[in-house]
User: Fold this.
Amino acid sequence: MYMRHIIRAFLLLSLLPLAWGCSCKGSGQKPAQAEPEEAIDTTAHVMMRIQQCSRLYTAEYQIHKIVTHDDVVRLKGNFMNHDFNIPLPLGDRKIAIPMDATLKAYIDFSGFSEKNIERQGDKITILLPDPQIVMTSSKINQQDIKTYVGLTRAHFSDKEMSNYEQQGRQAILESAQHMGIIHTAQENAARVLVPMLTEMGYKEQNIVIAFRHDMDIKQLFNSSVERR
Amino acid sequence: MQKNKKMTNTAKIKIAAVAAGIIALVAIAIWFTKSVSETTMSVDADQTIDVTPEQIERIRAIGEWEFLSVAFEEMVDTTRKGFFSDDHLTRIYYGTLRLGVDMQQVDSGWIQVQGDSIEVTLPAIRLLDKNFIDEARTKSFYESGRWKPADREALYQRARQRMLRRGMTPQYIETAKTNGEAQFRQMMLSMGYEHVSIRFK
Assistant:
């Protein structure tokens, strides 16, 4: 019995110098975690989608959001018909990701035709579809990302961070509906189109820019909203 | 005789007590085994982000007319040579280059009307968004080793440069111009003008 332990200890001790030799091989006295060499970038795979369109962007919102995530490992379960949920010690991770996004609202002119125009003498009414919102860009402030990682946990992986960023992006898009961007876009559309129509010879007071949303028509004239 | 009878009764009581004890122990054992067999246990970590507010930093009135959009899905990777193994980071970026005109750059008298003829002079076609990558949509494809924020920023900049190089070509600018001309012509014809001329600066 003792003999077996002695043999094991001997084998382990004999392997140690071998492992040490491997770790220093080719790097002089430096261990394996020597300075990494310069990064090499390889070719990129690219896909494109080209679309011809006619969109008038009239409002731009710059949004800032700090995405936070408190990643606590919990022991959950049921024992003797009692539920338990205990946070594990030293298993805490936290991350804060600051991000900026640009939202724009546009009016789609691709289907614009005679049907969108109504004339009555000198008066002209332009009937437009309701504005749509699109996120034209988003930027993660990589340098300002803050993390805290507990002793027993691994660092946040790129995949995990991307997942939190995508959730943050989705949260911005969902809250965009309540930011009043549609209304701003409608008002600004009048500011772009009214000068254009006055250049064509129409008097400002004779121009009506209206929006159609189902059967509800909102009218804008010189940035004032009225309902018909 | 009486002593023997008393002994027998005591023995009977003892036997009954032991039997009851055994039955109780078996019942407890069954209940315990059943409870333990129904026990569930798992180690979980929630992956949902916390609810934080969105802050509107700036609202801007714009007048940008888009005629062509070129959407990119670009995979960019980087490798760091190590002693035992190499580290890799591969990410897929999404971006859309929007080409069109800024209506705030029109000159005075950009529309000239003479009877049923109209002449429209539009500003030059340009890239409408300097920042066009939707970085929050980025997919992490592969990662080995630890990477710093500066490495991710470098990948972003490379993806941006590549999209710009592929998207801002004379061919696409020309396509945007042709489409812009067609769209404005259609709009002017819809407004009742017979002869329409569309020019770009």
